[in-house]
Amino acid sequence: MTRSGRAGAVIAGAALCLGAWSMEAEATQPRTLDDVLLEVEREVPGFGGMYHDAKGRLVVRMVHAEAAPVAVAAITRRFGAERVPAAGWVTEPAARTFSQLKALQERLTPEVLSLPGAVFTDVDEKSNRVAIGVARAEARGLVETVLSRLSVEREAVEVVEVGPILPTNVQGGWTPVAGGLQIETPGKYCTLGFAALQGGTLGFVSNSHCTQVQGGVEATPAYQAVAPWRVGTELTDPGYASGGSCPAGRICRNSDSAFFRADAAISPRVVRTSGAFDLNISAWLDVTSKVLYPSQGQTVLKTGRSTGTTSGTIQWACATVNSGGTPHTYYCNYIATSATQNGAGGDSGSPVYFQSGNTVSLTGILWGSGSNPWNFAFAPLGAVQSELGVVPYCLGGVGC
Fold first, then answer.
1. Is residue 115 located within the same domain as residue 78?
2. Domain range holding 120?
3. How many Å apart are CA 33 and CA 36, to the nearest integer?
4. 3-state DSSP assignment of residue 150
5. Is the pLDDT of residue 20 over 50?
6. Where is the signal peptide (predicted)?
């Protein structure tokens, strides 16, 4: 057999294997909740679905109310007696059957979910409509165009605004936002440091070098996790100065930090992952206190969008530190070292903290990392507070 013949045989074999896998997957497809509800309707015509209300009761929606007891019996047979709670059941009228709504959802889904900003489609038994979730108001018009073109009964559809649903890790989108999550500024990925109060203004802190111009205020927008989900606008970013104790040819500050006014909900929490390079969130930790200037020999944690949660032992405390490849120098900053990599590009702005149970004490924000040994550099919270005029926003909605 020639080389091309062997390749053709391999490709054909692969196609057969894929075909077998596909057919088997279809044959073993599990029944969904909607499948079982359709079975209930086939037994009890006029069934419009069910849900549990705020009183814990099972609500059975029926086109013909007199058939509700028969529907409850069918529900019990298929879902088990535990589906009818101790609080009992009630019935509500339905303008549409469950199968009508399911058919409408299936008709709309391919076109609606291909629209930018579309989040979900669902048979909403509570409203007895098909719900279409959109991530922002602008998507409503696109959805309405599709509904009009398909001549859909408008009363049967409800368009609701919800946030985007992104992967559940530090690079995903979250509301409210918290320390340790990815933010995007024009041309850069960084990490949100911590929620903060500047007088009566709520916002958050990240690095000055994450803004459009390092030092000085240009109203840089910040998005989480990516544009266009805007969560903050740069409000305070002191300039760098030369001369005096600043090394010749360099410009200096006490911290690489900037304060962003909040344009979205902010949480007094810091996220944590299970370890280095694991970006899946394992805990949301409450910020309850702070340490303005930690000491040499203490071990601190940080959570960043690139390397997750890592640690380092403070090897150099209150050092004057040059930022490599830039003219920037920082007074009284810290370097924490580790035997393994504990920082990388994109971790800029990460909260640096001590953890006790499910709470943390903030102690700074990361601005750089290096190797030989592995290390990350951070500005102490005392310097950040002094330069930006902020205090951390802590559990209970207060500054601490």
1. no
2. 98-161
3. 5
4. coil
5. no
6. 1-27
**237 and 216 together in one domain:** yes
Q: Do residues 287 and 342 share a domain?
A: yes
* Residue ending a domain, choose from 75, 93, 111: 93
Any residues with CB less than 8 A from the CB of 47 and at least 6 apart, and which? 37, 40, 41, 60, 61, 62, 63, 67, 71, 74, 94, 97, 98
Rounded to two decimals, what is the model's pTM? 0.63
> CA-to-CA distance for 368 and 322, rounded, in angstroms?
10
Residue 38 placed within a domain: yes
Long-range contacts of the stretch 36-41 (C-beta < 8 A, 24+): 36/78, 36/79, 37/98, 38/98, 38/99, 38/102, 39/78, 40/71, 40/74, 40/75, 40/78, 40/98, 41/97, 41/98, 41/99
Q: 126 with 190, same domain? A: no
What value does the mean pLDDT take over residues 214-231? 94
What's the pLDDT tens digit per position in 171-214? 988 889 999 999 999 999 999 999 999 999 999 999 999 999 99
The residues near 33 (Cβ < 8 Å, ≥ 6 apart) are none
Based on the structure, what is the number of domains in the chain? 3
Question: 157: number of CA atoms within 13 Å, CB side?
Answer: 25
**Is residue 206 helix, strand or coil?**
strand
Convert the pLDDT of each residue in 239-268 to its tens digit.
Answer: 999 998 888 889 999 999 999 999 999 999
Residue 135's pLDDT band (boundaries 50, 70, 90)?
A: confident
- The type of residue at 127 is S
- Encoded tokens for 92: 């509500």
- 312 and 181 both lie in a single domain: yes
CATH code of 336's domain: 2.40.10.10
Q: Which residues does 23 contact at the CB level (< 8 Å), separation at least 6?
A: none
Give Cα 332 to chain centroid, integer Å.
34
Do 88 and 223 lie in one domain? The reply is no
